[in-house]
Design a protein that fits this description.
mainly beta; 36% strand; 9 strands; two-stranded antiparallel sheet; single chain; 7-stranded mixed sheet; 129 residues; Virus Head Decoration Protein, Chain: A; 8% helix; 1 helix
């Protein structure tokens, strides 16, 4: 007789197994006002002469001499505070349902964002019922 250890609720974020989801660690930049980013939030990576290599929610305004490029998907709900940066699990590759992804309020994912994600191994494909 098998023992039930736990159950899993499928949230539809991962929409395929090719390419295989790749989980890594990323550093999310602290905020001016604390917030919780939800699993499935698209994160952009800071680069450029003013870049710090940290992650921010896609749709954040770049600082002068900073470039923010769509980079990864947040793997778990994560509280971001105001005192220090946060290390979090991110998906650096995989296939994700665009209907389940989140960005900064008022921002719309662009074709350039999709291209940047795809170039890094993150593909957007809806779940087909």
């Amino acid at each position: 007789m098998a023992n039930l250890i736990d159950t899993m609720n499928y949230d539809g974020l991962i929409s395929g197994l090719a390419p295989e989801p790749v989980v890594a660690a990323g550093t999310i930049r602290k905020l001016g006002t604390a917030a919780t980013y939800k699993r499935g939030t698209i994160l952009a990576k800071s680069s450029g002469s003013a870049g710090d290599g940290k992650l921010v929610i896609l749709g954040t305004s770049a600082a002068s001499n900073e470039t923010l490029t769509a980079y990864a998907i947040l793997a778990d709900d994560t509280a971001i505070g105001t005192a220090s940066d946060v290390n979090a699990a991110i998906y650096k590759a995989g296939c994700f349902d665009p209907a389940k992804l989140e960005v900064k309020s008022g921002y719309t994912i662009t074709e350039d964002d999709k291209d940047a994600l795809r170039d890094g191994g993150v593909f957007l494909s809806p779940v087909i019922d």
